[in-house]
Amino acid sequence: MRSLLLPFTLISALVLIPTCSCAMMNNNGPNHNSSLAITTTSSLLTYHKGPLLTGPKSINVYLIWYGLFSPMQKSTITSFLASFNPISHQSPSVSTWWKATQAYKDLRGRTVSSTVRLAGQASDIKSSLGKTLKRADIAVLVRRAISSKVFGVDPNGVYLVLTSQDVTVERFCMGSCGFHDNLAVSPRVRVVYAHVGDPATQCPSLCAWPFAAPAYGPPGQPVLRAPNGIGTDGMVMNIATLLAGAATNPFKNGYFQGDPLAPLEAVTACPGVFGAGAYPGYPGKLFVSATSKASFNAYGAGGKVFLLPAIWDLVSMSCKSLT
């Protein structure tokens, strides 16, 4: 770890946590009529003929930790990003979830990259731009990290800014749990960046459901136990959502439906769906740890488990979940 002139600290190590023993059982949820299952608000995501983040190169994620995060938060999120490697993970896995993006192809028939990896990390623990940010400040942080050579220029990268629970970002928790966009770093090169905040204290009901009671919706549905903490698991779900959206619609002319400034994308086209039989207020059938009683649907690196949202599957033309 080394300090730079700019308020970033470069992190070189990927931290994994020890393997845990997790006996599982199915969560069948309440009895319900299958006709009530959630359907996407779109019957088709339209391809607008723009570039995607395609293989054979991996999608490289560059993390900027803005504010203070606990070691457990960092290890969980970096373990999640390590989980896209399909080697030695129990099924269903994070890499299994990502396979749904392989149906998304560009004009040349190239698919979204099958691999995602953590390529670099930097910390701004002093919150150098303050604790109340505009969305434009997220681009400033990314541009600064690139111009100072903390990170290189990577057209197949996603520069991901994560903000701690005491940092507010414009529109976060106001109908949004994060966003992705792109910016020019040279006359010929644009890069993709994204933001996800920690919702633990600001809006768990919006950005960490089903691990927090919803502010609105059907009463009486149980709140599920989070495997890694409400805020952290909320961030993981939203990072997954943004990575899928950024890969399939990186420059606002890829796969989406509706307004390009507020589009339905690969995951946001399947709101509230995490498992089979989902319907409004019920996330669907999930696994439940026999020991921790936490709900999840994907195994990951370092013995971690995660809850990941459904992806719109271009093959079956439906929301595809892991359970």
TrEMBL record:
Subcellular location: Secreted, Extracellular space, Apoplast
Signal peptide: 1-22
Pfam name, any one: Phi_1
Domain of life from the UniProt record: Eukaryota
Keywords assigned: Apoplast, Secreted, Signal
Matching InterPro entries: EXORDIUM-like (IPR006766)
GO cellular component: apoplast
Family: Belongs to the EXORDIUM family.
Protein name, UniProt field: Protein EXORDIUM-like 2
Source species: Stephania cephalantha
Lineage of source species: Eukaryota, Viridiplantae, Streptophyta, Embryophyta, Tracheophyta
